[in-house]
Amino acid sequence: MPEGWEAVIGLEVHCQLSTRSKIFSGASTAYGASPNAQASAIDLGMPGVLPVLNREALRMAVMFGLSVDADIAPVCVFARKHYFYPDLPKGYQISQYELPVVANGHLDVELGEATKRIGITRAHMEEDAGKSLHEGFVGASGIDLNRAGTPLIEIVSEPDIRTPAEAVAYLKKLHQIVVYLGICDGNMQEGSFRCDANVSVRRVGTEQFGTRTETKNVNSFRYVEKAIAHEINRQVDVLEGGGSIQQETRLFDPGSGTTRAMRSKEDAHDYRYFPDPDLLPVHCDAAFIDEARASLPELPVDKRARFQEQYGLSKYDATVLTGEKPLADFYEAMVEAVVKQSGAEAKLCANWVITDLLGALNKAGLGITESPVSAPQMAGLVARITDETISGKIAKEVFEAMMAGEGDADAIIEARGLRQITDDGAIAGIIDQVIADNPNQYAQYKGGKEKLLGFFVGQVMKATGGKANPDAVNRLLKEKLGPAG
């Protein structure tokens, strides 16, 4: 942040709801259909058609409101928002203005050890527009209206955000919640979750807001951070140079990491909002809200607290494991399977998931849902460690084989002859031979070189191909060698 300046940031997030049909028609919302194959007469606003609200979209919007401790409006109203753009076939968008379904919520965002509360002004329902296509056309643009009419909630934050890092933390928390709720797939590349960043700057200590710009449709967390950082620096440079900021809509260029002006930014009155005459006010009664509340899953903050209490995990481990719902589900399925097999500690499961599995998946460019090793298979590996069939070191070899598709832990252990040697008599015999083969080192150890204990441990492990139980090796070596010096 340039010295002496402060940013004021608010985010508008368009969250595409995961309904099978559109918000006011029965047309499919499936992604990837050929252009304009899923644009119905209602989506196009043809004469004589009447929109009918998708009840499931309303339920999802209410679920979101409940998850951020917001007020649910007992009555909400749809309005027509007028603007003219090629991908808006009706010349207006059905949205909500004065009476949105969700208002006055908040998210608590963690930044290091600190927690900051960021207000959510509103979350209103609306229909998505179509999509302009510029590639593959010479001197023209194509219009794909498949997306027109897809249900959205637009989540508008209070201008409580002050840094790009805060903006990303808020956005990630919001993304995590809507995916946990199952109301959005969160796919930023496909436009299911996209962000408009409103940015202004002011001198430190100034109460009045500066003139803001809006950077539209930024589709990754990294790009949001870069776009906001660039816009802060750009505005400060303009103001320090004696210029003024224009209220405008801007676009972010990922290649250059800069924003550029697209058009002047409208105010609310420019959209000429008025209640949609084809849609009655929507009444959310107590029964409907209770139905939505009953369908709420365990939210990330609650799941993290439970993981810490139930499984004895650190805050860090619990945070990582609850970062994505599929990962949390994988971990819990693994713990349950391990307990049934051996009663292993949940902490060991967490270590293997966070360090080994996630590390291998990241290296392979895979997500947890694409893991070639299932939760029960990981449980089988941990069970073989806890019952001392294999050592932790040998387990690494077994895990690599599992990732390569060679089967489960038991099959690999047997096929490769990796079963751990735990018999004290067998290990003691090997120790006797190692001592006999290394008389100089033995003499040095007895002369006071206590560090040579590690040498003997290594020799025993080498002689057993790493299969000897390490605890037994250390215990028996100390007995055989006696005290150093």
Task: Give the structure's gist in a few sentences.
It is built from 16 helices and 16 strands. The chain is an alpha+beta fold and 485 residues long.
- C-alpha-based Rg, rounded: 30 Å
Strand coverage percent: 15-25%
Structural class: alpha+beta
Tell me, briefly, the overall form.
elongated
Residue-averaged pLDDT: 91
- Multimeric organization: single chain
Terminal CA distance reads: 62 Å
Biggest β-sheet description: 9 strands, mixed
Regions with little confidence, pLDDT below 50 for 5+ residues: none
Bin the helical content.
Answer: 40-55%
Number of helices: 16
Q: What is the strand arrangement across the widest sheet?
A: 2-6-7-10-1-11-12-13-14
Strand segment count: 16
Entry keywords:
nine-stranded mixed beta sheet; alpha+beta; 485 residues; 16 strands; elongated; 20% strand; single chain; three-stranded antiparallel beta sheet
Notes on the structure:
This protein has 485 residues and is of the alpha+beta class. The chain is built from 16 helices and 16 strands. It has helices at residues 41-44, 55-67, 164-181, 221-240, 286-294, 300-311, 315-321, 325-341, 346-364, 375-386, 392-403, 409-416, 424-437, 439-446, 452-463, 470-481; strands at residues 5-16, 71-72, 75-76, 79-82, 92-95, 102-111, 114-127, 131-133, 142-144, 151-157, 193-203, 213-218, 248-253, 258-264, 274-275, 282-283. Strands 2-6-7-10-1-11-12-13-14 form a nine-stranded mixed beta sheet. Strands 5-4-15 form a three-stranded antiparallel beta sheet, with no helix packed on it. Strands 3-16 form a two-stranded antiparallel sheet. Strand 12, helix 4 and strand 13 form a beta-alpha-beta unit. Helix 3 runs antiparallel to helix 4, helix 8 crosses helix 10 (375-386) and helix 10 runs antiparallel to helix 11 (392-403). The chain is elongated, with a radius of gyration of 30 Å. The N and C termini lie far apart (62 Å). The mean pLDDT is 91.
